[in-house]
Task: structure prediction
Amino acid sequence: MAAAPSEDERLDRAFLALADPVRRAIVARLSRGPATVNELAEPHPISTQAVSRHIHVLEQAGLVSRSRDAQRRPVHLEPARLEDLTAWIDRYRLVHEQRFRALDDVLASVADDTRHDAAPGRRRAAGSDSQEES
Result:
């Protein structure tokens, strides 16, 4: 019996699955609701068999699932799995946002200092003039 994949392995599978533009288009279409393989294949210049293989990759990544509805086998998006990916991305996005905010604060402080030093009537320190008197 195979061990359940780790969180890193699940993330790897999901991001690898989403690396393909056809699979991203399938996920985007499924965000509007379930669809059959034929419906998912319609906008693409590939066979329904090729679309089925793309769906299989998305299923292996846990991003979609299939159900049976009489003769139809609609494909459904698994939003919880997408939320896991978003949560992983958000952890790093928030760290970088904090760094950018800190950089903004430093730049604003430097800009304030520059404006203060260049204020009219402010005397320069002795010897700081670029032209010396003869």
Strands lie at 64-66, 75-77. The chain has a mean pLDDT of 86. The first strand starts at residue 64 and ends at 66.
